[in-house]
Amino acid sequence: MSFTLYNYVLSGNCYKVRLMASLLKVSYEAVSVDFHPGKAHKQEPLLKLNPAGTLPVLVTADHEILTETQAMLVWLAQQYDVDNTWWPAHNQPQITGIMQWLAFASRLSATVGELRLHTMLNKPLDAAPTRAGAIKALRELESHLTEQRIHGHPWLAGSSPTIADIACFPYTALSPDANIEHDNYPAIRSWLHAVRCLDGFITMPGIFELHTLRNPAGADASPLSDTVA
Ligand SMILES: N[C@@H](CCC(=O)N[C@@H](CS)C(=O)NCC(=O)O)C(=O)O
């Protein structure tokens, strides 16, 4: 096996890694962790792997341990993307843009993701400021994607999909779980649809499958069409 993923099926961060691996057509061993209600990520032996007590945790075949989701996406692309398009290391300006959105993905996780855990699993949280932070982040994303579309690009950083899109997709797509709907965000809805169109796309609970979204004629929308999720 290429790597081991300590995984929880309802975690948006774990899903980022599962989705990236699927897009790159990489197989791996998934170890299911009793995140809820068992809190196994807060106990040994998981705490030995990741003292921060968070999921996912990725262990490489060389026993290297990765505990930050965005770093896992970089590692996956460096290891398995033969075309170097998901993490185009040769293109410094694009890499800089990708780094911006990887950091932004952490904001989505800390706002939308935490609010979702509060809503779904009763995680204690000061919900009002977290919700305000989530909406602020989604507005920024909407603004950037609108700008991108004006330049003819459906993606976050450049003219083709990168790990930036995969990092930001899960918690944006899952925001209705935190009672934040997508109605006010047309550019986000089109981008979510474009990601769903990618070859190798997989879902998780809370994210609809593409075939249920296709129009009756069966025609797939282009990434820049106004067909929405
Ligand atoms: N900095 C970590 C954070 C990951 C994270 O917050 N994961 C959530 C699950 S999606 C978690 O384990 N939270 C721990 C908790 O809520 O107790 C990363 O980006 O990988």
Blueprint (SSEs and pairs):
Blueprint: E1 3-7, H1 12-23, E2 29-32, H2 46-49, E3 57-60, E4 65-66, H3 69-80, H4 92-121, H5 127-150, H6 163-173, H7 186-196
Helix pairs in contact: 1-3, 1-6, 4-5, 4-6, 5-7
Bound molecules: glutathione.
Describe it for me?
By secondary structure, the chain is of the alpha+beta class. Residues 216-221 and 225-229 have low confidence and may be disordered. The chain has 7 helices and 4 strands. The longest helix is centred in the middle third of the chain and has 30 residues, at 92-121. Strand 1 (3-7), helix 1 and strand 2 (29-32) form a beta-alpha-beta unit. The radius of gyration is 17 Å and the shape is globular. Helix content is 45%, strand content 7%. The chain has a 4-stranded mixed β-sheet with strand order 2-1-3-4. Helix 1 packs across helix 6, helix 4 runs antiparallel to helix 5 and helix 4 packs parallel to helix 6 (163-173). It has 2 domains: 3-80, Glutaredoxin (3-Layer(aba) Sandwich), CATH 3.40.30; 92-212, Glutathione S-transferase Yfyf (Class Pi), Chain A, domain 2, CATH 1.20.1050.10.
Identify the notable features of this structure and list them briefly.
229 residues; disordered C terminus; Glutathione S-transferase Yfyf (Class Pi), Chain A, domain 2; Glutaredoxin; 2 domains; 7 helices; alpha+beta; 4-stranded mixed beta sheet; globular; binds glutathione
Question: Quick recap of the structure?
Answer:
The chain is α+β, with helices and mostly antiparallel strands. It is globular and about 50 Å long. It has 7 helices and 4 strands, in the order E-H-E-H-E-E-H-H-H-H-H.
